[in-house]
Structures are given as C-alpha cells and as structure tokens.
Design a protein that fits this description.
This protein is of the alpha+beta class. It contains four helices and nine strands. The structure holds zinc ion (2 copies).
C-alpha cells in the first residue's frame, strides 16, 4: 500500500504534493507552480491587507508568505521587492528547507529564482504562497 505516500510526495520532482483550494486532490508542487507562473514575468507587486502579492504577466497572483512563520510578507518589503522584481522572469522554482537562526526549527519552503538579463534575485516563500495562487485566467485550467 504505497498509495498514500505517492499521494503526498512526487518522486519525479522530489517535492511534496500540496492541497489546493480548487480541488480535492493533491497536486505536485513543481507542476502546480510550473503550470501557472513558470517562466512568466512579474509585472507588479500589490500591497494589500499588510501583505505583498506578486502579479505575473498572465494575471496570476502569488501572495507572499514567510516560510519560517507563515506570516504575510509585509507591504514595506513589498515596495522593495517591486523595485527588484518588476520585469523579471521566474526561471526556477525549487522545493527546499530553511532553518531558524538557532537551528531549532526546520521548515519547508519554495525557492523562487527570478532573472532579467544578468540580474538575478531569489526569494524564499512558504508553500502557502503556492497554494493560494489565484488569477482570472485560471478558469478552464487544464483544457486547451
Ligand atoms: Zn512532480
Ligand atoms: Zn517568518
């Protein structure tokens, strides 16, 4: 009975499967991010309810949550992020682990790698960010 493990872990991409609000099944984290914002350009960072959200060129929004404490990444750093990320393309999305400074806490995270020409920027977000991606264009998702 390996069914449960297969359901929660993707061996192909070495990442967890996550539950998302729109479906009852678990989906591969890599595929989920790839299908929505993979290789897409960031066009805006919106600050709302004290949290920052990345907006991609295809209309998908990715709210930023801190991987260590699951708190929304605040609006102040959102401003900074916009300056850095605007126009950059999401090139890599990798499942990884982070560690608290006292090394007592280890937590899963999604490492997003952006690039624009020679400029590169990596940010660490919670898997919650991937779960909460939204966008108008997602209607009819999975069909051509
Ligand atoms: Zn996978
Ligand atoms: Zn934190």
């Amino acid at each position: 009975m390996s069914g449960l493990l297969d359901e929660l872990w993707c061996a192909e991409h070495n990442c967890p499967r996550i539950s998302i609000s729109t479906g009852e099944n678990y989906v591969c984290l890599f595929d989920h991010v790839n299908g929505r914002v993979g290789t897409c350009r960031v066009t805006d960072v919106v600050n709302d309810n004290d949290g920052a959200t990345l907006v991609f060129e295809n209309g998908v929004e990715l709210p930023l949550f801190c991987p260590c404490c699951e708190k929304e990444i605040d609006a102040t750093s959102g401003e900074e992020l916009l300056k850095e990320l605007n126009g950059m393309r999401l090139e890599t999305w990798v499942f990884a682990h982070g560690e608290s400074q006292d090394k007592k806490k280890r937590y899963p995270l999604l490492l997003l790698g952006f690039r624009n020409g020679r400029k590169k920027k990596e940010i660490e977000v919670s898997l919650t960010s991937a779960r909460r991606m939204t966008g108008k264009r997602l209607m009819g998702d999975g069909e051509n």
